[in-house]
Every structure is written in structure tokens, then in C-alpha cells.
Amino acid sequence: MERAVTTDRPFRAAGKAATGRHTRWRSQLALQSMVWPGVLFLLIFSYIPMYGILIAFKDYDLFLGVSGSPWVGLAHFREFFTDANFMNVLRNTLAMNILVLIFGFPAPIVFALFLNELTTSKFKRFVQTVSYLPHFVSWVIFGGLIMTVLSPSNGILNLLLQKLHIINEPLNFMGKPDLFWFIMVGAEMLKGIGWGAIIYIAAIAGVDPELYEAAKIDGAGRFQRMWYITVPSIMGTIVIMLIFAVSSILNTGIEQMLVMQNPLNLNVSETIDTYVYKVGLQQMRYSYSTAVGLAKSLVALILLIGANQVTRKISGNSLF
Q: Can you list the residues of the chain whose pLDDT is less than 70?
């Protein structure tokens, strides 16, 4: 008669697996403690409030609430697209963003490339610090400085142009509609060039120094090393930032537009953001403003996916 043989091997294997999972969890505890606050922040402030998107399809009433307000379907969307000001605000928004994309997007890249070529560390840190400072100044202050510089009464630009005999009398730059877009693009570049260059400077810092040494031995000059080594090495970062820039082509920012806007340039300074603020929020038309914001988000999503597909086919780099 054979004796039954018992073994605790399965139990020991299960215990080792549980111990291994516990060890991995403890080793990831520091990383998890940094990740979960961000996840909770996004959940509470980004995903849960998305319930409010429903009011874009309702005639929202403060006293009835979101669930009690009557449905109106796509009425608010049709109202926006058929509004008499729609084409004007769309033109202004696209024009300024396309100009920023053409002139403003390459500016931080060029700035980072030339900053990387500086050999004096103290001067390099000084330039970086000075270029970062405008980013931390609010648009109320920064816009006020721009308007002071361009002032027709005592603006330094008018005084300089008069001293150089380029103009005979002061110009009201902020009152000329044909100059407003270029003034805004220049202000955007001046305020964001240093901050926008940070990610490119970090990408350049990751380039293998041996590539530069090999190119120098082969006789490549400074600009050749920049063009044939630095730019291709950070091309992935450039592509990703370009995708984000294209997807936000309908966002002009409301702060700078309201600060720089005046009755003389209103025809070229009224954008989708300022239009929604004035018509949707000041008049308490919350459903209408939500519908416009949702339409912008859908367009941004389409542009994001489209730009990602195009850059993937052209350069082989993409966001996803």
C-alpha cells in the first residue's frame, strides 16, 4: 500500500510571490508617492468637472441646476457658428496664432542653440536668468510696459524714431489695426522665449559630447556642428513641441488680449477667447460659453491627432 505524499511546495511558491510583490511595492513607494497626488489632482480638477460639459447641450438655469435644465441639443453651437462676429473672431484668432507659429515657435529653438554655444558660464547664466524673468511677470504688468514703450506721448520707441528722423510725429502703435498682430506676436516672443527654451536646453544637454569632438576633428565649424549634430539630436523634442503648438492654434490667451485691447484695435483684437468672455460670461450665458469651449476642444483634438500623424509620416517622430 502506497503512502500519500504531501508537499507544501505550492504554498511556499505562493508565499514567495506575495513577498516579491510586497518588495516591489515597497521599492516603488517613493515613486508612487509622487505620482498619486498628480493623478488625484487631475481626477478632481480635470475629469470630475467634465460633468459640466452637459450644459453645452442645455439651456442652463442656475436655479434648476445641470440635471434640471432643459435640453436644447446643438442650438448653442449653431448660434455660435452663425453669429455675425464668428468669421471676424476666427480670422483674428487664426492669424495671430499662425504668426506665432511661424515666428514664435522657432525663436526658443534658435535661442537655445546660440545659448548652448556660449563658453563663458557666468555670462550664460546671466543671459538665461534675464530671458526667464518676463515669463514670471503677469500680463497686466508686462502689457503695461509694452504700451508704455509704444506710447505716442512719451514712449521710448517714438522718441528714438524721432531722434533718428525716421518719423516726424509720434505714432499711436496700439491704435493702428494693421500693426496690432505683429505687436502681439513680438510681445509673445519676448515674454516666452526664455521659458520656452528650457526644454530645448535640457535636450541639448543630453547630446553626446563625443559627437562634437569627432565633428571638430573632421573640420566642422561651429555652425556646422550646430546644424548637423545639435538640431538632429533634438528633433524629437522639436516635433513634440510642434504638435502641441499646432493643437493649441485656437488659443490666444485672454489676459494679454484684454490688456492690449482698446476700441481702436477691437476689430483685429477680438478673438474667440475674448468673445466668449464678453458674450458668454459677462452676460451669464454659461451654456453658450461652454458650447464654444467644447467646440474649441474638439478642434484641438482633431489638430493634435492630425499633426501627430503628419509628423510621424514625415520625420518618423510622433507623440503617440
A: 1-22
SS (H, E, C) 101-158: HHHHCHHHHHHHHHHHCCCCHHHHHHHHHHHHHHHHCCHHHHHHHHHHHCCCCCCHHH
Residue 287 near residue 58, CB atoms below 8 Å: yes
d(CA 49, CA 42): 10
What is the tens place of the pLDDT at every residue in 93-140? Answer: 999 999 999 999 999 999 999 998 888 888 988 998 899 899 999 999
DSSP single-letter state for residue 59: -
What is the pLDDT, as a whole number, of residue 2?
A: 47
C-alpha cell at 36: 498619486
Q: Which amino acid is at 294?
A: L
Q: State the Cα–Cα distance between residues 66 and 37, nearest whole angstrom.
A: 29
Residue 250 near residue 272 (C-beta atoms within 8 A): yes
- Residue 287 host element (H or E): helix 286-315
Nearest alpha-carbon partner for 240 in 64, 147, 109: 109
Determine the Cα–Cα distance for residues 189 and 99; give it in Å rounded to an integer: 11
Q: Residue 12: its pLDDT value, please?
A: 57
